[in-house]
Amino acid sequence: MDKEAAEAFLHAQMKPVYGYCLRRCATPQDAEDLAQEILLRAYAVLLRRSIPDPLRYLWTVARNTLANHYRERSRCTVGVAADMLDEADFTAALTACEETQRLHAELARL
Length: 110
Fold this sequence. Notes:
Layout: H1 3-12, H2 14-24, H3 28-48, H4 54-75, H5 87-109
């Protein structure tokens, strides 16, 4: 697909792709970032290769990009920002965690 045709095709699909992301993301900023990433990935491939059904390809890219986003997001789990914790809460949480680990070790030994 030539550059002008790819740009016209993706320009026509901007709102549907953003709407798709907006329905599936927590914040509008995440939806904008994902929509931009989807459109850029599709644009790069549409320029290099001949895709028989560009619309189907675009939605496949959208689905896979969203799945990758949530997969990576689940890997980095952070409960609370460090500056929101005070020392007493942190110490109590650490002590509870150590006690739980000790309990699990004792149960495993039995």
